[in-house]
Amino acid sequence: MVSERxxxxxxxxSNRGPVSYALDEKGALTARRGGGGLVSGxxxxxxxxxxxxxxxxxxxxxxxxxxxAGGRLDTEDTGGQQVRMLDIPADVFGDAxxxxxxxxxxFVHHLLYQTPLEPVFDDGFRAQWASxxxxxxxxxxxxxxxxxPGAAVLVQDYHLTLVPGMLRExxxxxxxxxxxxxPWAPVDTFRMLPDDVAAQVxxxxxxxxxxxxxxxxxxxxxxxxxxxxxxxxxTREGGDGNGDGAGELSVTYEGRTTxxxxxxxxxxxxxxxxxxxxxxxxxxxAALREQIGPGRRTIVRVDRTELSKxxxxxxxxxxxxxxxxxxxxxxxxxxAFAYPSxxxxxxxRDYTARVGQLADAINSEYGTPDWQPVVLxxxxxxxxxxxAYRLADVALVNPVRDGMNLVAKExxxxxxxxxxxxxxxxxxxxxxxxxxxxxxxxxxxxGTARALHEALSMEDGERAERTKRxxxxxxxxPPAQWFLDQLHALTGS
Length: 493
Ligand code: F6P
Known about the structure:
This protein is α/β, with parallel strands linked by helices. Helices cover 45% and strands 19% of the residues.
């Protein structure tokens, strides 16, 4: 049902919104604004566009804020953005977010299952799946209420795959897109999902007029799944007509066509260069330099402590480098920032512990009184990340699989003396950066160690030249343009 107010012309829906709240013992709420591509993307259309962002309450603070607001949040908290935060019951949210989105769909798209024992799709899974449906329906209901006739609705990510289809049923007048910020699984992996669930996910996304992906590779994988699982027709317009060439892909199923788009989110050079030179970053740079010690090279990595980021193999490769190249002893430091993520899941807690243990083991094996081979920081600190970007000689980005990986794009933009990029061929960013990166197979620890040695040994001139080209390739599609391109593709304007 359309609400009485005129409704929004542009709506964004995502699990995590642009603001979160902490609740203290006295019941006071403190708002904290987040960053990221969507936040800066949406700012490109300005407050007059009257866009509304629908997101979920993630914790107790958010839930309380959503209840107190009873609709849109206070725009002072959100930086002017109209935000509706959904107070979905905590158990339903938990099952949908931790159970299905992060433990099933994320695992499928990032190839994270250890298949001899998992996944197991049983009654427990079915109960969680029902929650995922309810959580998606809550979004579809809110969007249906908030949208003006004919509005454009941009639905984000694997948490909300069912929303486009559900929303189309409720409001056939809307223009709807879905965007995947993750990779899309190869068809053989995707088909691990129970057949009805696999079909539901695909049909959910196909409920939209457009489905967007970060790279051509993920769009092709989605099209393959539609063809194999649903028997849908996949067509290419333009391109070389031979299958893999460029050209727009579309999927037709039961008479409806969904166009697939590729929008490779880039780094925001203007923001990063300004932010990276503020006093708080300078301070952290000085502290890091002191911790590293004079005259040493640095291998920097900055990640959430996320299974797919491959931090453990990165550390093993660094250990292999030290074992095979004693000339680097005392002359290199691995600066590894591994920020907490999804700590409600035991597999993430175990992985976090493993990262810490391995860093300690390398430090006790190789460290000396005046050289700490691994400097590991686990407390999220954006200013310190930027400081590390500034001083990096080598950036290590070795995910087993990643939708894009913005760190690979941000480091060359911020680095002061030029930075060699060791990049996994399984990161989406590889499509745009491969020519000037040193690319690795993320499972090959010895190969990664060789790549680190090559990166550390690169001549200054070559490193600077490559960094310039990497920075140019990384900033082709900054967040504002990335968002506008999708909006225009959807509205045809
Ligand atoms: O695409 C994956 C994504 O949703 C990103 O947008 C974000 O970086 C990450 O996952 C964060 O996950 P979470 O919200 O679970 O912390």
